[in-house]
Write a structure and sequence with these properties.
This protein is mainly alpha-helical. Helix content is 64%, strand content 0%. It has one domain. It starts with 6 loop residues before the first helix and ends with a helix.
């Protein structure tokens, strides 16, 4: 069986999560955060940008489908 790596996961691999978390900590970016982490918000914005969806409801539906699969 072939393992398929989605385009989204290939793009995500271009970003170092360690460097991202270091920058978040350095700039105290999550001090007032509720709900999403900075990484989660970044992934959501990246997904929207790559997918080209504008409406939030369509994004949420696609995000849940991707998460549940």
């Amino acid at each position: 069986m072939y393992k398929v790596c989605s385009i989204f996961s290939q793009v995500v691999k271009l970003f170092s999560r360690g460097d991202f978390e270091k920058a978040v900590k350095e700039h105290k970016a999550e001090r007032h955060a509720r709900g999403f982490t900075s990484w989660g918000q970044f992934m959501a914005m990246l997904f929207c940008q790559l997918d080209g969806r504008i409406r939030c409801a369509r994004f949420v539906a696609a995000w849940r489908a991707a998460r549940d699969s």
